[in-house]
Amino acid sequence: MENKNSSNVGFNSGNENLNKRRRKDDEGGEDLQDLKKSPWSDILTSLILLDEEEKREQEQWSVDSQQDKALFELNQKRRSRATNEYHHQLQDHYSELDMTDQLRTKRSRCAASAVAVSAAASEEASSDMPTHLGNSSGGSGQQRRLWVKDRSKDWWEKRNHLDFPEDEFRRDFRMSKGTFNMICEELETTVMKKNTMLRDAIPVRQRVAVCIWRLATGEPLRLVSKRFGLGISTCHKLVLEVCSAIKTVLMPKFLQWPDEQRMKQIEEEFKSVSGIPNVGGSMYTTHIPIIAPKISVSHYFNKRHTERNQKTSYSITVQGVVDPRGVFSDVCIGWPGSMPDDQVLEKSALYQRANKGLLKDVWIVGTSGHPLMDWVLVPYVQKNLTWTQHAFNEKIGEVQRVAKEAFSRLKRRWSCLQKRTEVKLQDLPVVLGACCVLHNICEMRNEEMDPEFHFELFDDEMIPENSLRSISAAQARDHLAHNLLHHGLAGYSFLQ
């Protein structure tokens, strides 16, 4: 009985355990159902859907990327193919052009050879004809070049003739025939050109004449072209070429700083004129009118000329040092017209030469626009001058007058300097330098100038802000002024 009860107890206990599990499962199911019914279920569902959507987008992006890559590679291949085809077509086009040029060159050579043969045959035929027939033909043996415009050269050929009057030649070219011939001989090897198969070169004398006539008269190129029977561009080119040759060949011979022996002669000549010792040159700065440049216009604006002429003026400067005969020994060309004289002096090679001590114990007499320095002697500029200072200014004015008259003759002789020129700004210094060289040649050879050529030199002097640069120079000037007055070397016209 006890065993039966014990077995029943065990069975009952097992049933109880099973029932407990069932109750727990039922409770878990109820909890799961409760969880499904809660808000967390919605969140989990959304997250799962987002993950799936992201996966689908990644897969779609990967597919699109592969398609884009394939399309890019296809376009790249097409572009490369098109580029290669274009290069091949371009190369074929250039090859055709080269062949055309070669054919054209061969044809032109054949045509030139035919012209030369025809000219030679006609010359032989004319030489075999009787003399009276050759004269009546009027030079028909010389074939006219088909591409050269026929212009009259009568004006120049008349002046180039040996019988042309000397006075008229000097009036036209501002120099005698002898001086003109000398210049042509000096420049012959530099400006001479060789004849070509198509036309003869312009003779040296005509080249030089075009340049000198242009400088002397300042005529427009279209008028120069008519006088000499040449093209306008040809005349412009000849002027620049001859001016460059003058600078290269003639400037080293006719425009140089004097050596020691010549400097002593200059000092003695200036002392005999003014009584001031050790004067090695007279310095002056003038302005040359130009057309308004395209760049840095304000730098070339000339205020003094604008106020005087009541018209906007632009210019460049020319600084020159002359000897007692008015021959230039140093020039500085091309600085803008708005620059005062003292700044132009500081930019010049003369200033650099003086800083190196090459002008020791030598005075260069300047104007009131230059500062007083150890080697630059200028007049007194302050008001209420003493008798001694008046006397000094009077004597130093005689030295200054030499430079002013030299510049006046320079502009009278070369009229191109009196008005705005057609020459470009970068080429103008070469042209102005050639004018100074030709001026020296004419002065050295005592070339007289026609009295009808007149030019009034406008005074461009401006007193610098710092007119005293050296105390020792001021003391030396006072000593010179004292000696001039008390040794009877100064004039007394200021007392009259």
UniProtKB/TrEMBL annotation:
Annotated InterPro entries: HARBI1-like, HARBI1_dom
Reported cofactor(s): a divalent metal cation
Record bears the keyword Membrane: no
Superkingdom of origin: Eukaryota
Residue ranges annotated for the DDE Tnp4 domain, each copy included: 284-440
Region annotation Disordered: where it falls in the sequence: 1-36, 121-143
Residue runs in coiled coils: none
UniProtKB keywords: Hydrolase, Metal-binding, Nuclease, Nucleus
Location(s) in or outside the cell: Nucleus
Bias type Polar residues, positions: 1-17
Family: Belongs to the HARBI1 family.
Protein name as it appears in the record: DDE Tnp4 domain-containing protein
